[in-house]
């Protein structure tokens, strides 16, 4: 008898680089991701930003740091991202 082997392919986890805008919560940071999109009608670039809550286990990141966040399982109602690395510290 031959068994059918099913291979599941994991999708690559999304990651973003952004700026920490809040670190007031315990083990949580708020990261703002900015991107430029061209407006369809006026053909001008518009800056769009979105805030993500990310898990910071050791409270390493602080306001002004540039960080990389990676998608993970839901950790709470709003948190489904975790801190991967701190790229640059605030001056």
From TrEMBL:
Matches recorded under PROSITE patterns: RIBOSOMAL_S17 (PS00056)
CDD domains on file: Ribosomal_uS17
One Pfam family of this chain: Ribosomal_S17
Top-level taxon of the source organism: Bacteria
An annotated GO BP: translation
A Gene Ontology term for the protein's cellular component: cytosolic small ribosomal subunit
Keyword Transmembrane helix: no
Family statement: Belongs to the universal ribosomal protein uS17 family.
Subunit and interaction comment: Part of the 30S ribosomal subunit.
HAMAP family: Ribosomal_uS17_B
PANTHER family: 40S RIBOSOMAL PROTEIN S11 FAMILY MEMBER, SMALL RIBOSOMAL SUBUNIT PROTEIN US17M
Protein name stated in the entry: Small ribosomal subunit protein uS17
Gene expressing this chain: rpsQ
